[in-house]
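Readers of this paper often ask what the protein records in our data store actually look like. Such a record has a labelled line for the sequence and another for the backbone structure tokens. The tokens are whole numbers drawn from a learned vocabulary of local backbone shapes. We quote a single record here, exactly as it is kept in our systems:
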Amino acid sequence: MSSSQGSSTHLPVFVAGTRHWTVGDVRSFSSQSFNGLILGGAPGASVNSVEDAIAEFRYRHDLISAEECEAWLALRGLDYTDLHDCISRRSSGVASRDDREAEIDFLLSDQFAAVVRALSWRVAMAVELQLPLPSTAPAPSACWREWEQRFDDQRGQLLSTEARTRVLARLRRSLTRVHFLSAEFDSINAALEARSCVNEDRTTLESVAAANGYPYRQDSCFIDELPAEWAPILCAGALGAASSPLSLDGRFLLLSTLQRTEPRLTDADVLARIDSVIVEQHFDALASKHVRWIIPVGHG
């Protein structure tokens, strides 16, 4: 069982309007809007122990010292034992046994910040529109349903063709899709020889890698999703040319741009990214105006 005394339900997460919005409100909103899913996020396959997973968790949340970790947990009504037990459950694939453990798992989940952010948007919208705020905590489910309808209405108004076109023009480079091939070589000499074959003999990186038994793969993504070192290479290089070798964990990587595709609103992935930018900018601005944070959360 958890070592923490009592529940975190009544701990405030932020203040908006005339009301404190609590962990209980966040859980209530999550159960209505996220279908009550367990928002966990198990450690990666490379994690070999609970302690490794805890170290990874602390690194992800920038909790360098023991004091910083303890303060971060205390703000959520938790202690180190709660963190250890939660990570242990995740590592073992064990579900929470009672409501307190479910609460702890939710507070320490990767998605907690996303749920809180979504709630803050709707609360800020309600304050801006001068809608009545619920007097009870947690807020009743009818409140969430009404606000969700209002949120959907506002979202629909924001996502006009004109707004989308403006954002597309601003993000054109970032949302250009790059189709490319990467090939791995076990030595710098092998990589340089392959590069010479591609660039001087006018063959393809794929054929050179395949002929010599080196692994290769094709990928495509938006420019802003590329590793920082790759982006200028794949944006500027001639189509089909092989890049200079990149050192990566003892291997040597060659990149070759196959195609660049300009973003269009008819591309579902482009449209989704643009819509996300429009919605985030509008509701983050409302939250900045109306929300005062008690438990700070990031936007990731």
Observations:
- The beta strands are 12-16, 19-22, 177-185, 216-222, 246-248, 251-261, 291-293.
- Residues 21 and 214 are 56 Å apart (CA to CA).
- Residues 177-261 form a domain with the Chitinase A; domain 3 fold (CATH 3.10.50.40).
- The two ends are 30 Å apart (CA to CA).
